[in-house]
Design a protein that fits this description.
The protein is of the alpha+beta class. The chain has a domain of 125 residues. It is 48% helix and 15% strand. Helix 2 packs across helix 5.
C-alpha cells in the first residue's frame, strides 16, 4: 500500500490527489514519525495532532496535514492485514477523507481539508466503517466503550442500521475480544427527543432513537445545521435556510421560534 494507491482506492478528488502526491514527493516524513506513530495511542492522538500542526507550519488548504494523515493511514494497512481485517472495511473507513472534502466543497464551494481534528481516529485504527455506520473504540482508563457515528452518506433506514450493528458486533468479537461487554454508545443531535415531534411516527430518526436509552440530554450544539441544511454550523441567518424537506421545515420553524437542539447521549438497549 502507498499513498498513490490509497488516493485512487478512496476516489480522492483529482485536484487534491495531485497536490498530495506532489507534497509526498518533497516531504521528509522522518520529521513527523513520532507524531504519526502516536496516533495509534488513543490518549496521545490529540497531542500528536497539535504537535504535527506546529511542525508543519503554514499549510495551504491543509494539504501537508492531509498527506501526513494519509501516510499514517497507509501504515495502518499492515495492522489491518496482520489482524485479518478485510480490505473492504479498510477502504470504506479511509473513504472518510474524500467524503469530508466533498462535504467541505458543498458547504464552501472550495476543495480543501478541514477534518484533521477527527481523522486521527482513522489514521490510528481506533475507528472503523462497518457497513453504513462507523464505530470508534474509546479507551478511558480501564473502561472501553464503542461509540457509534453516523456518516453523512449512510443509509439510515432501520434495516441498514440493524445490519451494521450486527456486523459490528461480529467484527469486534472477532478482532477486538477485549471489547466484549462494552456499551455501544452514541452522542448525536439525532438522539434529541424534540425531533420526535417534528417527524413521522415511523421515521428513521424515531426508529434510531428507539434503540437507545438516553442517559444525558446533552448540551446545545449546532452541528445539525451542516448536516440538515448544508450550511456552516455557525450560520444563524435561519430565515434563509432551505425548506426542501419536512425535517428542514420543522427544524427551521423550531430555530426561528428560539428553539435549540442538543447532542444527546445514549447507549444501545441490551435487548435491542
Amino acid at each position: 500500500m502507498d499513498i498513490t494507491t490509497l488516493c485512487s482506492k478512496i476516489n480522492l478528488q483529482p485536484e487534491i490527489k495531485t497536490r498530495v502526491i506532489a507534497c509526498e514527493e518533497s516531504f521528509d516524513f522522518k520529521t513527523v514519525d513520532k507524531q504519526l506513530r502516536n496516533f495509534a495511542v488513543y490518549e496521545n492522538m490529540g497531542k500528536a495532532r497539535t504537535e504535527l500542526k506546529e511542525i508543519l507550519g503554514e499549510d495551504s488548504d491543509n494539504i501537508k496535514m492531509l498527506t501526513c494523515m494519509l501516510k499514517a493511514s497507509v501504515t495502518v494497512y499492515e495492522t489491518y492485514k496482520r489482524k485479518g481485517i478485510s480490505d473492504e472495511i479498510y477502504f470504506a473507513t479511509m473513504k472518510c477523507y474524500s467524503r469530508f472534502i466533498d462535504e467541505t466543497y458543498r458547504r464552501t464551494g472550495r476543495y480543501y481539508f478541514d477534518r484533521d481534528w477527527w481523522t486521527t481516529r482513522q489514521a490510528g485504527w481506533h475507528l472503523f466503517r462497518i457497513d453504513e455506520l462507523e464505530y470508534e473504540i474509546v479507551r478511558d482508563e480501564n473502561e472501553i466503550t464503542i461509540e457509534i457515528h453516523i456518516p453523512s452518506d449512510a443509509d439510515f433506514s432501520p434495516s441498514a442500521v440493524e445490519q451494521s450493528l450486527n456486523s459490528a458486533k461480529r467484527f469486534f468479537s472477532q478482532y477486538y475480544p477485549e471489547t466484549e461487554g462494552a456499551d455501544y454508545c452514541c452522542e448525536s443531535w439525532l438522539l434529541d427527543r424534540q425531533l420526535r415531534g417534528m417527524v413521522r411516527e415511523n421515521a428513521n430518526i424515531v426508529s434510531f432513537q428507539n434503540r437507545f436509552e438516553i442517559f444525558d440530554e446533552g448540551e446545545t450544539r449546532t452541528d445539525f445545521i451542516e448536516w440538515v441544511f448544508r450550511r456552516n454550523s455557525t450560520d444563524t441567518d435561519y430565515a434563509k435556510f432551505p425548506e426542501n424537506t419536512s425535517l428542514q421545515r420543522e427544524l427551521k420553524r423550531h430555530l426561528l421560534a428560539g428553539g435549540a437542539i442538543r447532542n444527546a447521549h445514549g447507549k444501545i438497549l441490551r435487548d435491542g
